[in-house]
Amino acid sequence: MPKPCSLLGLEHLSADDVTRFLKLARKMHTPHPKPLLRGKRIALLFYEPSTRTRVSFEFAAKLLGTHTSVISADSSSITKGESIVDTGKTLQALGADCIVVRHPSSGAPNVLARNLRIPIINAGDGMHEHPSQGLLDAYTMLRHKKSLKGLRVAMVGDIQHSRVVRSNVHLLSKFGAQVILCGPPELLPDTAAALAPDVKISRHMEEALRKADVIMMLRVQKERLAGLKLDAHKYVAQYQLTPERLKLAKNDAIVMHPGPMVRGMEIQSEIADGPQSVIEEQVQNGVYVRMAILTACMGVA
Ligand code: CP
C-alpha cells in the first residue's frame, strides 16, 4: 500500500510520479468510480475565491465516499485572527484525514505540511503553484495529443502572476514539451525563461502561436497587479486570441484556459465556444484528476 503524502507542487515530482497521477486519473474516468475513501473526512480550506477547484475537489471527494467540509476565510474563525497553522491543527483535531488548501501566500501549504500529520493538497498558493491544475491540463492535452514530447505549447497573457503557468512549465519540461511564454514585459519578465531549460519567451503573439499544438490563454490577474496600470485596449490589440491569430497555429491545435476567463479581454467568445476549445473539458477532467490526487495522497492507490 503506498504511503500517504502531501501534494505541494509539481516542481519536485519526477516524471514517473506525474505519470502515476495521470494513469490513476484515467482509472477514475468512469461513470461509477469505486468509493475508495469511504468514511474519510476531507477539509477544503479556502482563503481565496474559487469555483472550479473548490467544487471539483468537493465532488471528487464525495464520489470517493468521503465527508467534506468547506471552510472559507470570511465565514470561519480566521476572521478573528486565527493563524493558518492553528486553523489546520483545529481541523486535524476535529478528525480531518486530509486538508485541501488555497491561499494567497506562496508557500502556505508547505507551512501546513510541516506542522500537521495529515496530507496537505495545494489547491493554489499565491504566485507559486497550482499542481492539480497542471495535472488536469496535462491530462486534457493527452486526451487530444499522442504525447507531450515535442508538443509546442504557447501560453499567452499574465505569466508573471500565474501559478498555473509555473505548474504547467514544471510538468511539461519533464516530458520534453516545447513551451513558449508570451506577454508584455510587465506581465512577463525576461527572468521567466529561467523557469525550465526549454522555455522560450516571445513578445509577439503571432510568433508564439505559429505552428502551436496547444494554446493556453491566461487571465490578467487584477487582484495581484499591486498598483500596476495596464492599458486594456493595447493589451487586447496585442494579446487577445482572435480567429485570425488562431489560424497561425496548427489546424488541429487545441485552445485551453484554466479559468476564470474574461471574454472580450484575453479571448473572443467565438473561440472560447468554438470547435478547437477544450475549456469545458478541462473543467470536467478536473474531477477525475482530483479523485486521483485524493486517493494517491491518502495512500489508497
Ligand atoms: N482554475 C482555477 O483555479 O479556477 P478557480 O479559481 O475557479 O478554482
Overview of this structure, please?
The chain is of the alpha/beta class and 301 residues long. It contains eleven helices and nine strands. The strands form two sheets. Strands 7-6-5-8-9 form a five-stranded parallel beta sheet. The protein has a four-stranded parallel beta sheet with strand order 2-1-3-4, with helices on both faces. Helix 1 crosses helix 5, helix 2 packs across helix 11 (279-297) and helix 5 crosses helix 11 (279-297). The chain is globular. 46% of the residues are buried. Residues 50-53, 124, 133, 258-260 line the site of phosphoric acid mono(formamide)ester (CP).
Strand order across the largest sheet? 7-6-5-8-9
Task: Provide the residue-averaged pLDDT.
Answer: 95
Helix and strand content put the structural class at alpha/beta
Largest sheet: 5 strands, parallel
Give the strand content.
5-15%
Secondary structure: helix percent: 25-40%
Q: Give the end-to-end Cα distance, rounded to a whole number of Å.
A: 7 Å
Q: Give the overall shape, derived from the CA principal axes.
A: globular
Order of helices and strands: HEHEHEHEHEHEEHEHHEHH
Low-confidence segments, ≥5 residues, pLDDT <50? none
Helix run count: 11
Bound molecules: phosphoric acid mono(formamide)ester
Number of strands: 9
The value of Rg in angstroms is 19 Å
